[in-house]
């Protein structure tokens, strides 16, 4: 009930404008019940975000060959389009714990897992810097694209994301490609 209520409300307005009181009233539960499951509204909406856009999509085991990277992005972008009002309102937030922070955290985890599977030393400071540069920068680009109404086609965005992969990481994502 909480997830349904939060989804409906955040689909209509920015998450900063939503109060826990508004969510619990819509779900017809008490604040006490809310806080039994979630520490704040961001934890709730981030769980919804994960279930809609990450859970069955962002799986390191799915990344086996070069084209899998593109397929994962296209699947996620399709889900964004299906829930555009919700995701747009999530990405307007810059509060601590917001979905922007959550997306960066998940993406960094995902890339580390992929690179570990390929035998990359993810403790190498240059590799870590490359991962963070790719994932923080990519998340902000994605956020701006979503907030702007996703005017660029999904295939084109995948091509643009490929361009922001730091040189040090290219051989691990695109072994056949030389730049």
Uncertain runs: none
Counting H and I runs of at least 4 residues, what is the number of helices? Answer: 10
Instruction: State the assembly state of the protein chains.
Output: single chain
Cα(first) to Cα(last) distance is: 50 Å
Tell me the helix content. Answer: 55-70%
Report the β-strand fraction as a percent range. under 5%
Number of domain modules? 2
CATH superfamily of the largest domain: Tetracycline Repressor, domain 2
What is the CA-atom radius of gyration, in angstroms? 18 Å
Question: What structural class results from the helix and strand content?
Answer: mainly alpha
Order of helices and strands: HHHHHHHHHH
Fold-level CATH name of the largest domain: Tetracycline Repressor, domain 2
Keywords: DNA-binding
Domain HTH tetR-type: 1-56
DNA-binding region: 19-38
Protein name: TetR/AcrR family transcriptional regulator
């Amino acid at each position: 009930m909480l997830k349904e209520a939060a989804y409906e409300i955040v689909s209509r307005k920015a998450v900063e404008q939503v109060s826990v009181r508004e969510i619990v009233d819509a779900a017809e539960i008490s604040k006490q019940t809310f806080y039994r499951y979630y520490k704040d509204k961001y934890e709730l909406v981030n769980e919804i975000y994960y279930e809609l856009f990450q859970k069955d999509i962002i799986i390191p085991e799915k990344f086996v060959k070069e084209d899998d990277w593109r397929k994962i992005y296209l699947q996620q972008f399709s889900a964004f389009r299906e829930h555009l009002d919700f995701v747009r309102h999530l990405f307007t937030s810059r509060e601590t714990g917001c979905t922007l922070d959550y997306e960066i955290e998940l993406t960094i985890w995902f890339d580390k897992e992929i690179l570990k599977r390929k035998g990359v030393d993810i403790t190498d400071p240059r590799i870590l810097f490359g991962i963070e540069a790719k994932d923080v920068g990519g998340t902000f680009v994605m956020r701006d694209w979503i907030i702007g109404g996703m005017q660029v086609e999904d295939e084109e965005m995948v091509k643009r994301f490929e361009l922001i992969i730091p040189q040090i990481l290219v051989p691990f994502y695109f072994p056949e490609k030389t730049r």
